[in-house]
Amino acid sequence: MKRISREHTTGIFGPDVPPVAEVAPGEALGFEAGDALGGRVKTHADALTVLLPPGQVNPATGPVFVQGAQPGDTLAVSILSIELGERGQTRCRAGCGVLAGEVNAPSAALVPVRDGIACFSDRIRFPVRPMVGVIGTAPSGQAVASFYPGPHGGNLDINEIAAGSTVYLPVAVPGALLAIGDVHATMGDGELTGGGIDIPAVVTVQLRSHKGVGWQRPVVETPEAWSTCGNAASLAEAIRIATRDMVALLSDRLSISREEGFLLVGVAGDARIGQAAELGMDVTAYVRIPKLILPRAL
C-alpha cells in the first residue's frame, strides 16, 4: 500500500499544486496527516501561544493524482481507517469561538490518547470519535486555502467523515488532486471553540471515480445515512444549500416531486452543524437522510 508522508503537505487546494503521488482507482492509500498546527505544539506553552496565518493552518497531506479522474466526474473517497497518534491538543484563543469575550482565554490542554480513550484530565476521560476535518479536491479556478471550506470540500469539519464513511467530491481538474488533513480524535458538532482534539493520524482510504453523477458539492455516505453538505457565511444559508441538494437528490432517486422531497426532508431529515466557530470563515452544515428512506444515491 502506498503511503504519503506528512512531509508532503499543502496549504491550498488548487489546479496548479503539483501532485506528490499518483494512485490507481481501487488502490488503498495511506495519508500521514499532521494536526491543524502542523506539529508545532510540543508543550502546553506552545498550545497557548502558537499562531499561524490561514495559509498555514490545517495543512493537508497531498495532493494525490487519481488515475482516470476527469472534470465532471465524482471522486468517491472511502475512509477505511483512522489511526490516531498518542497525543493531541485542544485550545481556546482570545476572540475565537462562539463564547469569544465570555471566557478566560487563551486556555489549552494537551490530551493523551490511550487505547481509544481521550485523557482530558486526571478526572475526565471519554472514548475518542476520530474524524477527518479537511478533505477536498482542487477547484478549477482560484486556489482555496485549506483553512476554508467550499464546494470542493476543504475544511468541512463534519463528524460524519469518519472510518466507514465515503465522501463524494466533485472533480474539477484532471486527476482530482485529493488532499486530506486536520484529523480530530474527537470534536463536538459545531466545533464551537474553533477546534477539537487536534492530533496527527494516518488516514487510509480507497479511491474510485464515478462518471455522470453531477454532484457539485460534497455528499457523505455512512452505513446508516446519506448527507448533503453546504457552506455559507450564515448558518441559515448553509442549511438552505444542504437542504436544496438533499431535496434534489430525493426527488431524482425516488422519482418524486420537489415538493414531496421537501416534505420528506421535513419529517425524516436532520440538519446538523459541522463548524460554526466564528473564525472568519464559512459555516458548514449538512442534512442527513437515513438509508431506510434513501437506500441508494448513486
Plain-language structure description:
With 298 residues, this protein is mainly β. The radius of gyration is 18 Å and the shape is globular. A nine-stranded mixed β-sheet has the order 1-5-18-7-16-19-20-22-21. Strands 2, 4, 6, 12, 14, 15 and 17 form a seven-stranded mixed β-sheet that branches. The mean pLDDT is 94. The protein is built from three helices and 22 strands. The chain has a domain at 2-10 and 21-212: Jelly Rolls. The longest helix has 20 residues, at 235-254.
How would you describe this structure in keywords?
7-stranded mixed β-sheet, Jelly Rolls, 12% helix, mainly beta, 298 residues, 9-stranded mixed β-sheet, 22 strands
Mass-distribution shape: globular
The percentage of residues in β strands lies in 35-45%
- Average of the residue pLDDT scores: 94
At CATH level 2, the architecture of the domain at 2-10 and 21-212 is: Sandwich
Question: Structural class of the helix and strand makeup?
Answer: mainly beta
The number of helices is: 3
Short structural description:
Helix content is 12%, strand content 38%. It has 298 residues and is mainly beta. The protein has a domain at 2-10 and 21-212: Sandwich (Jelly Rolls).
Topology:
Elements lengths: L1 E3 L4 E2 L1 E2 L7 E3 L4 E6 L10 H6 L10 E7 L7 E11 L2 E6 L14 E8 L2 E3 L5 E3 L3 E6 L7 E2 L3 E2 L2 E3 L10 E5 L7 E7 L16 E10 L8 E3 L3 E8 L2 H20 L3 H11 L1 E6 L7 E8 L8
Helix pairs in contact: 2-3
